[in-house]
Amino acid sequence: MKHTRISNCLKMPNVIIDDTILTYASKCVAATLYAYRNTLNYCRLGLAKLARYSGCSVATVRKALTQLTERGYISTYRNYAWCTQRSRMIFRKDAIICRVSTHTNFTFIPRATLQMGMRKSSFSIYLYICRTAGNTGRAFPSLRKIADTLLMGTSTVCRGLKELTDLTLLHREHCIKRDGCHACNSYFLIRNVSKKATAKVVPVIRVVRTTPSAPVTVQPVRISARTLHHRPIKRTACNLQIIFSDFSIIHPP
């Protein structure tokens, strides 16, 4: 069976995602290396470009590369070139070799997530959810399970999930059992990720009517654009439908 290449995604090895010894910044730097490698698993980015693409400082990138080398995920190859002006060999930019194969046991991660400027803990949570979701695009781990697997606090997990939801990377759905008890939340991955996932505020109109006989009053409301994609249809006591996908939205009965 021939596999098609997904250009807007990168192959992240599952062994790096599941490694609890790596720091959050090391996983982000590893994702950047696997995103900008060539067909020979060589990445020729310098420290400055790695720091800019991964959203870390140069010192943090240097520590992350040291940790990834100690864990055996990458290795550094020193390049030399002949300089005709000096008539001797000079050093060139080092090449980083990604040693973990991505033919099997990998997870697709959107490339646009590297340029969104999210916290490194949120990025680690996103990697774990993509790992557990698989091809279905739906994951349902509990907050305690995420916290115990990634060795972080529950409050950090809640903060990271809220940031991922605000960036339209995840859609969180609260699940309730038949007996009324709350179950683990379901997280649905949003595949069409844009690099410009910022909080753009647009004007939206809302209809307010206290009684069926009262006149209709229109009030402008400012709602974030990233919440419009998953805002459900609401009904008031007067049976008014407000549809948030059309931006115009008022249809009185």
Question: What does it look like?
Answer:
By secondary structure, the protein is of the alpha+beta class. The strands form 6 sheets. A 3-stranded antiparallel beta sheet has the order 2-6-3. 25% of the residues are buried. The chain has 7 helices and 15 strands. The protein has helices at residues 14-17, 24-35, 47-54, 58-70, 120-133, 143-150, 154-166; strands at residues 9-13, 42-43, 74-77, 80-83, 88-91, 95-98, 106-110, 138-139, 170-173, 186-189, 201-208, 217-224, 234-235, 241-242, 250-251. Residues 1-5, 198-214 and 216-253 have low confidence and may be disordered. A hairpin with a 5-residue loop joins strand 13 and strand 14. Helix 6 (143-150) packs across helix 7 (154-166). The longest helix is centred in the middle third of the chain and has 14 residues, at 120-133.
Give a quick set of tags describing it.
253 residues, three-stranded antiparallel beta sheet, elongated, 15 strands, disordered N terminus, alpha+beta
- Based on DSSP secondary structure assignment, what is the total number of beta strands? 15
Share of helical residues? 25-40%
Q: Name the beta content range.
A: 15-25%
Which sequence of strands runs across the widest sheet?
Answer: 2-6-3
Query: What radius of gyration results from the CA coordinates?
Result: 24 Å
Tell me the number of helical segments per DSSP (H or I, 4 or more residues long): 7
For the largest beta-sheet, the strand count, sense and barrel status come to: 3 strands, antiparallel
Distance between the termini: 55 Å
Mean pLDDT, as a whole number? 77
What's the shape?
Answer: elongated
What class do helices, strands and sheet pairing give? alpha+beta
Order of helices and strands: EHHEHHEEEEEHEHHEEEEEEE
Low-confidence stretches: 1-5, 198-214, 216-253
